Amino acid sequence: MAKYQLTKISTRAPKSAFKQDFKEQTQKNLEDLNVLQNLLYAEGKHAILVILQGMDASGKDGAIKNIFGTMNPQGVQVTSFKVPTQEEAAHDFLWRIHKNTPSKGHIQVFNRSHYEDVLVTRVHGWCNNELAKKRFEAINAFEKILQQNNTVILKFYLHVSAEEQALRLQERMSNPAKMWKYNKNDFEEAKLREKYYEYYEACFKKCNDPEWMIVPSDQNWYKEYTIAKALKQTLEQLDMKYPALQQ
Q: Which residues contact 79 (CB under 8 A, 6 or more apart)?
């Protein structure tokens, strides 16, 4: 599992990567994704669940806007998981997750997900090791059920450096277009990076079917290229066909 040691994984694009080339390829991938998403919707045999996790300011919102924002809104839904409501907290931790999973023909994007219940809860001591173990088992069973029902799961961890995170959090205090995102608690959470790394790596180890993809996210253009490419390849592998004309 060495490939999931976050301190050893770069948060930046390879030095050989030329920004303009990658942006052009991303645009081509997005055009192809529009066709593939329409085919997914028309065939109605598969569903796609995209899970986006990462530290605050890792670029989850931007990825959703720039990759999925160009697709047909009839076939794409986005759900953001924040602190559980009173109703949600009265149920098991997967209750609010399961009812937001995608139906056949649809792409569902999770901005944060059920993994928060073995991440932030552990960082702050609300979930001990024994409970975390049970939740890992529940998550694996849950994701297996989805896969058995023709739901393909893509799990992305957006890997951003402490330096880039700090710049983005500061921008939320100075850029009027981003001030609505400002939360003073984000700065305190950023100080807990080592703990978050520890518990993210536990997620990668305990819940790795399907495998996690670690996405270098200091440069948005490379992050978007990586996610769009993975999604395109996934849809192509489904070997989908438009339904025949019904006479």
A: 100, 108, 109, 110, 111
Mean pLDDT confidence for 193-197 = 98
Q: Are 94 and 35 in contact (CB under 8 A)?
A: no
Q: What string of DSSP letters covers 114-157? A: GGGGGTHHHHTTSS-HHHHHHHHHHHHHHHHHHHHTTEEEEEEE
Query: Is the bond into 210 cis (omega within 30 degrees of 0)?
Result: yes
Identify the pLDDT of residue 247.
Answer: 75
Q: Rounded distance, CA 77 to CA 36, Å?
A: 16
The count of other CB atoms within 10 Å of the CB of residue 1 is 8
Residue 74 — pLDDT band, cuts 50, 70, 90?
very high
Closest C-alpha to 12, from 241, 216, 239: 216
Q: What homologous superfamily does CATH list for 2-9+48-236? A: P-loop containing nucleotide triphosphate hydrolases (3.40.50.300)
Q: Which two tokens stand for residue 170?
A: 């500061």
d(CA 57, CA 218): 10
